[in-house]
Amino acid sequence: MPERVYNFSAGPSMLPLSALERAGAEITNYRGSGMSVMEMSHRSPIFQEIFDQAQDKLRRVLSIPAGYKLLFLQTGATGQFSMVPLNLMGEAGRADYAVTGNFSQLACQEARKYGAVHIAASSEDRDYRYIPAQDQLELDPGASYFYYCANNTIYGTEWNYVPETGSVPLVCDMSSNILSTPVDVSKYGLIFAGAQKNMAPAGLTVVILREGLAGRHLPCTPLMMEYQTMIQKDSMYNTPPCWCIYMLSLTLDWVEENGGLAGMERLRRQRSGLLYEALDSSRLFQCHAEPAARSSMNVTFRTGKPELDAQFIAQAAQAGLLNLKGHRKTGGMRASIYNAMPLEGVEKLRDFIRAFEKANL
Ligand SMILES: *Cc1c(COP(=O)(O)O)cnc(C)c1O
Asked: What distance in angstroms lies between residue 83's CA and the mean position of ligand 1's atoms?
């Protein structure tokens, strides 16, 4: 095995090598403290500085405007499927959901426990291969919020526009494309993302919330699931995921050194362009997503023959290109090409796709 492989896993996934190396160098003695970040009290000044720096960097990189709270929580993106309706369903008691894949479907099901959920759009009719257009959204002007998932990790589709919902707050799951492209945070009521796709190890969930949306939680809301509690305690009502917050800070250094979100956008266009070009010019492979809805983060494709797909995945692994097996809902292959995937990894995969086609057509 080579020292580092190209890991195309959908998550947890690759982290920038510079962040891993820095963490390695500091692992037993963080900057002269004589301890690891894993061993520090979360109430100590030295950890508070790590926490504050991570928050400052994320605010800077995402250009989070004044008037928004930034929370570092746990329970994954899935925890937000409950936390969002518990906190935001509010007096109207009803919400709009766009169902464009597995994770928005799960979020929608969970929300039904707490209010009246209206499916404002769904792409289930064509096996989640597309994203509904703005004029296909059936909007309820009295909804407490409109929910969607910006990038559908399993199906490999991505919204290429921000829904226009008037005065209804937008809530967005950005778990698998946050930090990959510039975002106008001011258009959103709430953005959340699990860290393990594009930010840090699993265990940290980032929430960006417009002030004023908190404090309207249902009376049954568990204390740990109130945004209000976490805002008042600056994400430290209990012990936060300290190590993940530190790793996020190191990842953000790498993002800033590589041109911030404009740099990440350039890189993601290059990476996904290489793969879609190879797949479009192929007679062996087909993409799952329709062209207008293609994700820049998760490229889903197949030959149509399960045995041949299995061979592709096994042979690619031997060539150091790992975890290309698609999700069981789609079958085939999925190449997750998040921020930290080096361009060379994608070039190697592109070459492998071409060579495999030659050998198998
Ligand atoms: C991975 C993922 C989730 C689930 O994240 P957890 O942190 O495992 O709960 C939710 N939404 C999207 C878009 C994802 O990619």
From this structure: 14
